[in-house]
User: What shape does this take?
Amino acid sequence: MLETTNERAGMPAVSATQGRPSGSAGTQRRRAGRPSAAVLDKAGITAAALELINRKGYDGLTMAALARELDVAPSALYNHVASKQDVLLLVEDHLMSLVDVSGFGSGAWEAGVRTWAWSYRDVFAAHTPLIPVIAVLPVTDAPQTLAMYETVSKGFADAGFPQEHIIPAIVALESFIFGSAYDVTAPEDIFESGSMAESTPYFTAAVRSSASRRDAPAGQERGRPADTAFHRGLEALITGFGAIRK
Amino acid sequence: MLETTNERAGMPAVSATQGRPSGSAGTQRRRAGRPSAAVLDKAGITAAALELINRKGYDGLTMAALARELDVAPSALYNHVASKQDVLLLVEDHLMSLVDVSGFGSGAWEAGVRTWAWSYRDVFAAHTPLIPVIAVLPVTDAPQTLAMYETVSKGFADAGFPQEHIIPAIVALESFIFGSAYDVTAPEDIFESGSMAESTPYFTAAVRSSASRRDAPAGQERGRPADTAFHRGLEALITGFGAIRK
DNA sequence: ACCACTAAATGAACGGCATTCATTTATTAG
DNA sequence: CTAATAAATGAATGCCGTTCATTTAGTGGT
Assistant: This one.
């Protein structure tokens, strides 16, 4: 198959999430064989997967649970996706459309990058299990992802970046964003050294004095420790990369 | 170096990896009940897990395979570790001892950070499945990890960093390092936009001109695209953070 | 109008996985 | 000496992703 690119170009957008409960008692089985109207499509599968993730987390996202959500036998899913990895791919690409690239093109490059980077981090902080998927995923079959890269690339080009520096800069920023997304999910006491505190004096002192900061957020900086680190790192990267513009 | 902490302080260092094949025909079963000399310990489990990972990758690291490597029933492992996650933890902490922190204390802070960051990235580029583990792992029961943080913290303090800025700086650098480790494993043609290239002109152009660079590595910068991005990002972070020293 | 082909569903089955439990044997503490 | 604990086996459990044979419905060609 592999028809050229897109998935469901001009499709009728059947809401496949509501499986027509049909009034009567809850879960009456569908009889075998192809149904008159298709029950599943990629959009419906994506929506159901997201719903499931939001309700039960990524541990709750199993092919069986997904099938149950769609009121379908598990094996039916494999008529539309090749694997669970394929489902994660669909979810990932959808999430990319939630990343805010509106800051590019309007005002200063720095502001565009800030909006993009913070929203990018926030989206994937809630979906860290997808990060290993994204990082290795070819953009070819991920239209939303490709669209995001296009807007960001244009933002950099318009800001005067030399062509050959654009991709490395985006990649470096993205790497920082992915790593920082993990950081958001870490427990706040992750650095508590416990019983061996006296053997690590410098580290223990540094942790204490950084944890005591409970001041009001200024500018883009928000409250949590992860936000402080992200703010500082992002500003350093913006300054560093901003200097190589023509 | 770094010897301070370490588990199994004065143990007899029994090589638990070689399970005494005992001359005779290959796999003769051990009889049930506690053996006179203990077969397993945490160090042996860690070594076997690493061996398995190097030979078969992380997909090959199963509790059953690990038990087989140690010539033991799978359930025996649970007398020494509580879960597979626990095994990953042991491996992770061991890997931390491979990160090169020798650059701190000798010369300039910048050089110390460079050595540390590059080796840190290289170690975990070969072990990306551990990154989600580290990022959420409390440092308490990871002595090697703690030792690394201590050395790095001291390096920052000696370089004149204000106490409260040390942890955020390390966290930001670490986030960048983890994200960049993923980047190393990505296929080189990850950005090939394929059939929809004409709808993403800016991105496609940027990809083309960055891919054409095949020049000799200068300084810390190595050959691959991932190295270029890492080099640029790291230097930007070093410059940015270096400025806040007293 | 027929007929072959393909698409989309069911339901049973499979192998692999982490983990638990009862049992056996050996060591250690009181 | 004896009770408790530690460390092994081996059987069993439940879940997970995936495959396969089967059934039914639409589709394209003559």
Remarks:
- Residues 31-36, 62-64, 74-75, 78, 83-84 of chain A lie near DNA strand D (CB under 10 Å from a C1').
- Residues 1-27 of chain A have pLDDT under 50 and may be disordered.
